[in-house]
Amino acid sequence: MSANLPWLHDAKQQFAAQRRQGTLAHAMLLPLPEADGGVLLGQFMAALALCSSLVADVPCGHCKSCQLVNAGSHPDFHLLQADGNQIKVEQVRSLCQSLTNTAQQGAFG
Ligand SMILES: [Zn+2]
Fold first, then answer.
1. Which CATH number, 3.40.50.300, 3.40.50.2300, 3.30.300.30, 3.40.80.10, labels domain 6-75?
2. Is 49 exposed, middle or buried (CB count within 10 Å of its CB: 0-12, 13-18, 19+)?
3. Residue 98 CA to ligand 1 centre (angstroms)
4. Ligand 1 (single-atom ion) residues, CB below 5 Å
5. Residue 46 CB neighbour total at 10 angstroms
6. How far is CA 43 from the centre of its chain?
7. CA atoms within 13 Å, Cβ hemisphere of 36
C-alpha cells in the first residue's frame, strides 16, 4: 500500500484536500487499471479516510485505524476486486452483507 507512484500524486493530494475541507464524496469511482496503481490509490484513499489523524495528508500509520488497515483487519475496510475479469454476484452479495452493518471504527462510516 505504500508504493509511491508519481502519477498518483495529484489524485492523492486532491483527496487529502477534500478530506481536510470535509468535502469528501460518499463514493468514488476510480477508473484506473490495477496495473496503473488503481488498487493502490483506492487503498490509500480508504486508509486516509479511516485514519484518526485529521491533519495528516497521508495515513499516519500509528493510530489504531492505520494499524488495523495495515494488518488487513480493519472492520470498516472492504476491498472488492475482480475475480478474473469479473466481479461476481456472490462477491457483491457478500460485500452488501458487510456494508449493512454500521461502521465499527471510522469517523466517516
Ligand atoms: Zn492513522
1. 3.40.50.300
2. buried
3. 23
4. 51, 53, 60, 63, 66
5. 21
6. 4
7. 9
**In terms of residues, how long is the chain?**
109
CA dihedral 50, 56, 59, 61 (to 10 degrees): -110
- State the distance from the centre of ligand 1 to the C-alpha of 49, rounded, in angstroms: 9
19-77, pLDDT tens digit by residue? 999 999 988 888 888 889 988 999 999 999 999 998 889 999 999 999 999 999 998 88
C-alpha 85 – ligand 1 centre gap (Å): 33
Alpha-carbon gap, residue 46 to 44, rounded angstroms? 6
Task: Say if residue 79's pLDDT is above 90.
Answer: no
Q: Give the start-to-end residue ranges of the domains of the chain.
A: 6-75
C-alpha 51 – ligand 1 centre gap (Å): 4
